[in-house]
Design brief:
By secondary structure, this protein is an alpha+beta fold. It has a single domain, classed as Beta Complex (Metal Binding Protein, Guanine Nucleotide Exchange Factor, Chain A), CATH 2.170.150. It is globular and about 45 Å long.
Length: 155
Amino acid sequence: MVMKRAEADSVCYIEPTEELRARLKPEQYAVLVKGATEPPFRNPYWNNHEAGIYVDAIDGTPLFSSREKFESGSGWPSFWQPLDESHLVLVEDDAMGMHRVEVRAKGSGGHLGHLFTDGPEPTGLRYCLNSASLRFVPVARLEEEGLGSLSGLFA
């Protein structure tokens, strides 16, 4: 369900604290808190082909798997499906003279990217995300990161 911006702000809000600013790199803060977009093709995960899980860079919630990642040609990491839709909030975004759907992390409130309907089957969706909003956990580190329950996705 796509929410109106005012409705989403009451459900999913990020507090721009000094502690958060100190914990995040400047680009991460700009993307996650201010809703900025990193440059295409100049971010760490757009061309990452390693197996693993992408988690929220703020609170570590598992959001996407490399199994649903695909080459969109956009220059940003793109996924056709999240691990659990309930961990995301979709928000109407009419900024910049176009209609889009913003993707936020429900737990942290951080801006992740945008959702488009030009992705591959079986969903036809493209979650086009900023690398700065994510942290990648390779399969070999899932157990030590407390994500061992997701290792079965790669068996």
